[in-house]
Amino acid sequence: MLPSLARMVLIAAFARGAHRPAKQLALRSLLGLGAAVVFGSMFGSAITRMHIPNDLALALLIVIMMLAGFFSSGLVLLTMIAMKHDVRSDELICILRTLPLCKNLRWFLGHLPTVVVITYLGVFGTFLVVAASRTVGYWPGLAVIAFWLGLYSAYGFLLLPVLNRVLVRVAAFFGMIFLLMKALDWWLQNSTHVVGQHVPVAICCAVLLANLGYWFDWCSTGTKSKSMASSVVYLKISKTIPQQLWFSARLARNERTRNSLLTAVLLSSLFAAGFWVRSSSQVSQSLVMLLGSILSATFACDVRGVVTRYKPAEQSILWSINALLKQEGLITLLASAVIGLPLTILWLANDPSFFSIVAVISSHLAGGVIGLLVGTVLVPAAGEMGTQFLSGVTASGLVVAYPRVMSLHEAGPALQIAGWLSVSVTALVLIYGIEKTRRKRYGYA
Question: 31, 201, 270, 287: least buried by Cβ within 10 Å?
Answer without folding.
Answer: 201
